[in-house]
Amino acid sequence: MTHPIDRPFSFGLAASSPLLERYDNHLTRRLASMAGYYLDSEAYTAQLAQENSLVYEVYEIRRPEQAGELLSGLSILHPGKVGTEYFMTKGHFHAVLETGEIYHCLNGRGALVMETPEGEWAVEALHPGQVLYVPPRWAHRSVNTDPTEDLVTFFVYPGHAGHDYGTIEKFGFRKLLVEQDGQPILLDNPRWHPPETRR
Prior knowledge:
Elements: E1 25-30, H1 41-50, E2 54-61, E3 70-77, E4 81-82, E5 85-86, E6 101-107, E7 110-115, E8 121-126, E9 131-134, E10 139-144, E11 151-158, H2 166-171, E12 175-180, E13 183-188
């Protein structure tokens, strides 16, 4: 249900059962929508042939997409891997590059992988109670490193920020999180394109 744009409103968010009490839109991303995002394309193809798994869901609280507003919602990234690479969100820059975002982790364990258009990068851990500020100009992607638990985050960003998924889809992130000997490790992405080589 859409909230009146000129009235305050509240909603429940229970950390013990991370679901929004009220939301306006529910998005789902299945494995089929993640073609080209995982490094091991053979593992991806074989896994997709077995099952089009639900990778992540987003529950949105809709507001006008304009400066002065705040958009928010809940992201639920399910556990799983493609080959050795953990389930992840597609990741994005904001269309208005000079806008930031806040993430509050409610459940599970994982990381936010980030980078700037110039190729600077950072990876920050996510665990319950952790609040992470993503500055303007930083692309960001959630990665679930927990083998059994959903990674659940509540997010807030400016109403006019927009999303640029295309840059990440085309060039990838500089760093990947994969499992090795039962632990997450960070690797350079061999398919990442440095900014100076992008056309």
